Amino acid sequence: MEIKSRVPGKIVRFEKQVGDSVEVKDVLIVMEAMKMKQLVPSPVAGVVKEYKVQPGDRVSAGQVIAVVE
């Protein structure tokens, strides 16, 4: 499943690494948006397959930022 950014912002760090197992609501990415930390949770249980961004990248709303299968 592709995970998209809900808001424009900057990627701060990854909380899970590629290959890690995740459960629903596990935090994948910490973003900064509107000068506040935004947590990006996994909507599904599975394995982190890929990040489409890197820490420091700016993203727009609706941009695919991760893939969990």
Automatic annotation (TrEMBL):
Domain Lipoyl-binding: 1-69
Keyword NAD: no
Top-level taxon: Bacteria
Pfam families per record: Biotin_lipoyl
Keyword entries, A-Z: Biotin
Protein name as annotated: Biotin/lipoyl attachment domain-containing protein
Phylogenetic lineage: Bacteria, Bacillati, Bacillota, Negativicutes, Acidaminococcales
